[in-house]
């Protein structure tokens, strides 16, 4: 048997000497270089991410400041005008005063919406948002909110239609959150749909799931921005919509509220043709001894907050 260190014979019968060639190579240095390289790559990635994040924060602060300043400026100007009119008693001035009070109210709603949304984002981040679930007919919930908005939407020259394939479908939902979801989608649809456009809201019962759709014939969303809009502070940006900057929190909250219900939201859009948001909710019910109360009083306020400038342009 041939083995290391032993002697054996080759084909010619001569003695063959086995030997071992040791090639020792110090890998420590190479390994250290590789580790350093991968550390540099990781750190560069982290640096890029944090630079991107800082850029987003800077953009966000600039947008939020704009969003806070605009209504504040309007309220301040309205107060100055009211001061000028305060001693006049003719009907003409009383009407003007009422008009300015309305403008102030709507801009207060605008500020309240922004602040509420910011508070909700921080509550979501710290896990403090809990759903107040009750079994509700989802068709009624969506139809009610849609029809209460019909006069507002139609005053903008946009047709609003509601459709469903079922009369009743009971789901365990937090009605307040569902209303906020639909109001937010509708307010975006109104914001980005020109006069003579159409908005279509639908509830579809598909057995295990219920689909809620909000579709518009508005300006659409560029394909590469379709996922960004659901991210915190995610906005389309650019000049294609010059009337509003916004905070970019609305759809992030919508997505979070849908997910708290165990659902999913998706969007399809074509530039200059329109967008369609689809929410898929699992058809689940809960055991309830007593049907709970919804906070109905808050709807008017929610509508005011989501549609602060529906009657006029600042
Ligand atoms: P904000 O809270 O500032 O209103 P959102 O998160 O609701 O912002 O929306 C993010 C962005 O998505 C909007 O700034 C807009 O560019 C785009 N967007 C949302 N809905 C629509 C829509 N129906 N049509 C066109 N663009 C939309």
Structure explained in plain terms:
The protein has 314 residues and is an alpha+beta fold. The protein has 2 domains: 1-129, Orthogonal Bundle (Helix Hairpins); 134-306, Heat Shock Protein 90 (2-Layer Sandwich), CATH 3.30.565.10. The chain has helices spanning 28-85, 91-125, 138-154, 175-191, 250-260, 298-306; strands spanning 7-9, 15-17, 134-137, 159-164, 170-173, 198-205, 209-216, 264-270, 274-282. Strands 4-6-7-9-8 form a 5-stranded mixed sheet, with helices on one face. Strands 1-2 form a two-stranded antiparallel ribbon. Strands 3-5 form a two-stranded antiparallel sheet. Strand 1 and strand 2 form a beta hairpin. The protein is extended. The model is unreliable at 1-6 and 239-243 (pLDDT under 50). It binds adenosine-5'-diphosphate (ADP). Adenosine-5'-diphosphate binds next to helix 4 and helix 5.
Helical fraction: 40-55%
H/E topology pattern: EEHHEHEEHEEHEEH
Reading off the top of the CATH hierarchy, the class of the largest domain is best stated as Alpha Beta
* C-alpha end-to-end distance: 98 Å
What is the topological layout?
Blueprint lengths: L6 E3 L5 E3 L10 H58 L5 H35 L8 E4 H17 L4 E6 L5 E4 L1 H17 L6 E8 L3 E8 L33 H11 L3 E7 L3 E9 L15 H9 L8
Parallel strand pairs: 4-6
Antiparallel strand pairs: 1-2, 3-5, 6-7, 7-9, 8-9
Helix pairs in contact: 1-2, 2-5, 2-6, 3-4, 4-5, 4-6
Bound molecules: adenosine-5'-diphosphate.
Q: What is the compact description of this entry?
A:
By secondary structure, the chain is an alpha+beta fold.
């Amino acid at each position: 048997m041939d083995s290391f260190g032993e002697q054996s014979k080759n084909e010619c019968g001569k003695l063959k000497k086995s030997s071992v060639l040791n090639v020792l190579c110090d890998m420590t240095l190479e390994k250290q270089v590789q580790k350093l390289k991968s550390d540099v790559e990781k750190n560069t990635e982290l640096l890029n991410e944090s630079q991107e994040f800082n850029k987003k924060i800077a953009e966000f602060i600039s947008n939020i400041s704009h969003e806070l300043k605009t209504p504040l400026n309007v309220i301040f100007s309205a107060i100055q005008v009211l001061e000028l009119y305060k001693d006049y008693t003719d009907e003409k001035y009383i009407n003007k005063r009422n008009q300015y009070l309305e403008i102030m109210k709507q801009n207060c709603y605008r500020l309240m919406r922004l602040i509420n949304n910011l508070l909700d984002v921080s509550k979501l981040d710290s896990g403090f948002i809990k759903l107040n679930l009750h079994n509700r007919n989802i068709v009624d919930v969506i139809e009610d909110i849609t029809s209460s908005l019909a006069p507002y939407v139609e005053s903008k020259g946009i047709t609003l239609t509601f459709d469903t394939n079922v009369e009743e479908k009971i789901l365990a939902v937090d009605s307040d959150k569902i209303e906020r979801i639909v109001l937010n989608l509708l307010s975006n649809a109104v914001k980005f749909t020109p006069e003579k456009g159409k908005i279509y809201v639908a509830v579809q019962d598909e057995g295990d799931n219920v689909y809620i759709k909000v579709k518009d014939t508005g300006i659409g969303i560029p394909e590469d921005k379709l996922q960004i809009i659901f991210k915190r502070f995610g906005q389309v940006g650019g000049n294609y919509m010059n009337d509003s900057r916004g905070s970019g929190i609305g759809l992030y909250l919508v997505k979070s509220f849908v997910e708290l219900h165990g659902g999913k939201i998706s969007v399809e859009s074509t530039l200059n043709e329109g967008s369609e948001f689809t929410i898929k909710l699992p058809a689940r019910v809960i055991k309830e001894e007593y049907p709970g109360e919804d906070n109905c009083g808050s709807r008017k306020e929610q509508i005011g907050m989501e549609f602060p400038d529906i009657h006029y342009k600042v």
